[in-house]
Design goal:
Layout (H helix, E strand, L loop, with lengths): L1 H13 L14 H10 L13 H5 L2 H13 L8 E7 L6 E6 L2 H18 L16 H14 L4 E6 L3 H4 L2 H9 L5 H11 L3 E3 L2 E3 L12 H21 L7 E6 L2 E6 L2 H17 L10 E4 L2 H5 L6 E3 L2 E7 L5 E7 L1 H17 L5 H19 L5 H19 L10 H10 L23
Parallel strand pairs: 1-4
Antiparallel strand pairs: 1-2, 3-7, 3-8, 4-5, 6-7, 9-10, 10-11
Helix pairs in contact: 1-5, 2-5, 8-9, 8-10, 13-15
């Protein structure tokens, strides 16, 4: 499949106005089997209760039957099973849609096809849910823009319930810009209209792309590509004499401006633009703030949160003004609470096994948050983790397992991963061209 996708990507890159008419044949038993191998073993099942190991028992038969039904147009995606997960830093719950296993396979194959086409169209200012692009890349580009492009004002935007409010009619129009294969188009529409099963009741989905679906990220990116990215880069930036940039990760967006008046004007345009496409800005979470070297000199600089980091202006060791960052309070508190609950639930696990799993979790945390200027935050998290381990290991029995001195000795002989800065904010990766 990789060779075929490479050929599609080349065509999309060299012929930006081409509409693809023959794509459905790529969703065949051979490629679906490759998708089956990619899917994780421990994912929650959909409404049919089928897991990966269940489907694998008669894999060849199941895949052939699936492709047969797709060719006969009798394949219809099942409603997604809705569940809720805690929203970090709040008491709210975030809805999550879990497709049936067979639908996950088709969605994964479909997302590969769509990615091969639209990855050539997407702009350098977007990072979320894209191959070889991540949170650190977005943070690096944002850092470079603010420090080198005479930025004095930040517009931090939050879209209210984005995944629940994607307009299907507009999305279908956007898909048709590149997809002319009626079978693939029909498949996308059926996934959008599959419905949601919650507490045994079927709910129609007339709008939105349920979070949790394998194909949802690429469809969400496609929607915002046409609604925001192209509009900002091709139309709005030309109106302004001052500098104007944007960095988007999924539905999280930051706009950088040289002039505050420009930011205020653009905010009004953005509200109207999103309203046209059935989206709404969260007024309480969206703000325009002074930010940059001039704001630091005038002592008017404020802070903003983006991708789990609180950004603020500070000075380097040689006195130069520059952007700094630390773990946001909301994300830090959420991580501590998650760690506490995990230790509490697994405190009776054999100590060697618990230590090994704890080490993996800490290593993952440091690799994510171990970014330039954030040493104090990750060091504090390491200290909190040690205190929680000491507290809950002492509750394994009625007698205390450790004194602090004995616990410290145990840590010295069985060390956990130590905090480390893994990401240098000044070394750019993908998206570097956008900073030029």
């Amino acid at each position: 499949m990789e060779t075929e996708l490479t050929r599609i990507a080349y065509t999309a890159r060299t012929q930006p106005k081409t509409r693809f008419t023959s794509l459905a044949h790529l969703i065949n038993p051979r490629n679906l089997e490759a998708c089956h191998r990619e899917l994780s073993n421990n994912k929650a099942p959909g409404i049919d209760g089928i897991k990966k190991e269940d489907y694998e028992q008669n894999l060849e038969t199941n895949l052939n039957d699936l492709v047969r039904r797709m060719k006969q147009q009798s394949y219809k995606p099942q409603p997604v099973r809705r569940t809720y997960i805690a929203k970090q830093g709040t008491n709210k719950m975030r809805p999550l849609g879990i497709p049936a296993y067979e639908d996950k396979l088709v969605q994964l194959a479909l997302s590969k096809i769509l990615n091969s086409i639209y990855e050539e169209d997407f702009l350098d200012c977007s990072f979320g849910y894209r191959p070889k692009r991540g949170i650190h890349d977005a943070l690096k580009v944002l850092n470079r823009i603010i420090e080198t492009k005479n930025i004095n004002c930040i517009l931090d935007v939050d879209i209210k319930g984005f995944f629940d409010n994607v307009d299907h009619e507009w999305l279908k129009k956007f898909v048709k810009h590149r997809i002319a294969d009626p079978n693939v188009y029909r498949l996308i529409v059926r996934f959008l209209k599959a419905g949601v099963m919650e507490e045994g009741k079927l709910q129609a989905t007339n709008q939105g792309t349920p979070q949790g679906g394998v194909v949802s990220p690429i469809l969400a990116n496609l929607y915002l590509h046409y609604v925001v990215d192209l509009w900002f880069e091709k139309a709005m930036r030309k109106r302004y004499n001052g500098k104007a940039y944007m960095v988007r990760y999924a539905d999280d967006m930051v706009f950088c401006f040289e002039n505050e008046e420009t930011a205020k004007q653009f905010y009004e345009y953005l509200v109207e633009r999103l309203k046209r496409f059935n989206l709404e800005i969260s007024a309480e979470k969206t703000k325009i703030i002074p930010f940059g070297k001039r704001a630091l000199e005038n002592k008017t600089s404020m802070t903003f949160d983006f991708l789990g980091m609180t950004h603020y202006m500070g000075r380097s060791r040689d006195g130069r003004a520059r952007v700094k960052r630390k773990t946001s309070k909301k994300k830090y508190k959420s991580s501590v609470n998650k760690c506490k609950e995990w230790i509490k639930q697994h405190r009776n696990m054999p100590i060697n096994e618990m230590w090994k799993k704890m080490g993996v979790k800490l290593q993952s945390y440091y690799r994510h948050y171990g970014i330039t200027d954030n040493w104090d935050s990750i060091a504090k998290f390491a200290q909190e983790t040690e205190k929680m381990l000491f507290k809950w290991l002492n509750r394994r029995s009625q007698r205390k397992s450790f004194t602090w001195d004995k616990f410290s000795l145990f840590l010295s002989k069985n060390p956990l991963p130590r905090p480390k800065i893994y990401v240098n904010i000044f070394i750019l990766g993908v998206g570097a061209n956008y900073c030029k």
